[in-house]
Write a structure and sequence with these properties.
By secondary structure, the chain is an alpha/beta fold. The protein has two domains: 271 residues, 4-Layer Sandwich (Metallo-beta-lactamase, Chain A); 162 residues, Metallo-hydrolase/oxidoreductase (Rossmann fold). The protein is built from 14 helices and 19 strands. The strands form four sheets. The chain has a six-stranded mixed sheet. Helix 6 packs across helix 13. The protein is globular, with a radius of gyration of 22 Å. The termini are close together.
Length: 444
């Protein structure tokens, strides 16, 4: 019998964590933050040191009490990729478990940077496992990393192999057939698993399962960037661009077009520095030989003074702040907390979406209103998502042919859309497709 506990990420978008138990062995898949609640906890803490109990009270990290009876049986923590809603709780929780942390090279490199940044010491051993590789955890459990695409590199689906069949955990992913960085998803392996008729359960990202489409490729986002960066006159204008700091493929495209604009490229912001240096450390990209990367406030202020002096039209500024975060570089420029003036018809490009929660929506409204008061040109939604949509989900289910499905990564407004698709494909609610909440268990 295989038993599942949906620890976190099934009532909300964030703090993803799922436990899978077979006999006496348990693996934890993801250990993430609910980012907005984590930021709120940071803002409320005067000393900058956040107590784990406070994070739990705020709902920012998963509630491990749901699996307290399994604690001594946990044999591995396996983050699927480097986003904070999948790895961000590791510095606060992982030390409680006597087991290694296993991830892809980029995921582990980002995790090292997060641990260093938060001045945390973990006793857990960090193990790197490549895309499409296997690792035997115990006599009963083997894990397999299956390459997929997402909005950060080295994202994998995890197949948990047991003597009673396979559980596939796909949270997050997209099916990008023309990726800008890395390989396309390993469809061949997914089809092989489907042909075995041994996929007992599929745990599936349902975030965009209500969108009746196939999610467009990152190569489409690249062409959108090309159109705005190279196709619109910007002579004598400042150009500032903001995007997700962990989206290395997007940053690669931005750097390519920045060079074609004959502008010096600067990355401004701590998270941009953290994620790009991690990508360089494992050889994914080489930015620092052609881009000035400024992570700390003093560096940022110095670089902006240099840009003002040398000529604003000679630079492409890539800044943190795509969600309107008050302390990010773009917000501080827009509210005059950084001494870099924007003039009418300067360009501000948002290569991102607004993550739909009240805090982000409010922050972005404030930022955009500040920018509009300066009469700059604003280019929004130069972006394609890193999450699969409904028709991708249909293709996935047809490929792996799971006996049962659990929708993940969202509240009922998200997971119910995948329930609907599953019912259309012959799955029965409560028997072969399951609407789970945080802390619930399912036996297969």
């Amino acid at each position: 019998m295989i038993e599942i506990c949906t620890v976190g990420g099934f009532n909300e978008v964030g703090k993803n964590m799922t436990a899978i138990k077979y006999k006496e062995d348990v693996v934890l898949l993801d250990m993430g933050l609910e980012v907005e609640k984590y930021i709120s906890a940071q803002d409320e803490d005067e000393n900058g040191l956040i107590d784990v109990k406070e994070l739990l009270n705020q709902g920012a990290i998963p509630d491990e009490s749901f699996i307290k009876d399994w604690k001594k049986q946990i044999v591995a923590i396996i983050p699927t990729h480097a986003h904070l809603d999948h790895v961000g709780a590791i510095p606060y929780m992982a030390h409680k478990y006597d087991c290694p942390i296993i991830g892809t090279p980029y995921t582990i490199e980002v995790l090292k940077a997060i641990i260093k940044d938060r001045e945390v010491k973990l006793r857990n051993r960090l193990i790197t496992l490549g895309n499409n590789e296997h690792h035997k955890l115990t006599s009963n459990i083997k894990i397999e990393f299956i390459n997929t695409t997402h909005s950060t590199p080295d994202t994998v689906m995890v197949a948990v192999h047991t003597p009673e069949g396979v559980v596939i955990y796909a949270n997050d992913f997209k099916f990008d057939n023309f990726p800008v960085l890395g390989e396309k998803p390993n469809y061949q392996r997914l089809q092989e698993l489907g042909r075995t008729n041994k996929v007992r359960l599929l745990i599936l990202d349902s975030l965009y399962s209500g969108f009746e489409r196939k999610t467009p490729s990152e190569s489409i986002a690249k062409e959108m960037l090309r159109d705005v960066m190279l196709g619109i006159p910007n002579k004598d204008k400042a150009v500032i661009l903001t995007t997700f700091s962990s989206h290395i493929a997007r940053l690669k495209s931005i750097a390519e077009f920045g060079q074609k604009m004959n502008r010096k490229i600067v990355f401004l912001g701590r998270s941009l520095a953290k994620y790009t240096y991690a990508a360089e450390a494992i050889g994914l990209v080489k930015f620092s030989n052609k881009i000035d990367i400024c992570g700390y406030s003093s560096q940022i202020k110095k670089k902006l003074r240099e840009i003002e002096k040398q000529g604003r039209d000679k630079y492409l500024i890539v800044a943190t702040g795509h969600q309107g975060e008050p302390n990010a570089v773009l917000s501080r420029i827009a509210n005059n907390k950084l001494k870099f003036r924007l003039f009418p018809e300067d360009h501000v490009i948002f290569s991102c979406c607004v993550i739909p929660n009240p805090i982000n929506i409010a922050n972005r409204d404030i930022l955009e209103n500040n920018l509009k008061s300066m009469k700059v040109r604003i280019f929004k939604d130069i972006h394609q998502s890193g999450h699969a949509s409904r028709e991708d989900h249909r293709d996935f289910i047809n490929m792996v042919k799971p006996e049962q499905i659990i929708p993940a990564h969202g509240d009922i407004s998200k997971t119910s859309n995948l329930i609907s698709l599953g019912r259309d494909m012959g799955y029965e609610l409560g028997k072969t497709i399951h609407l789970m909440q945080d802390g619930q268990r399912l036996k297969i």
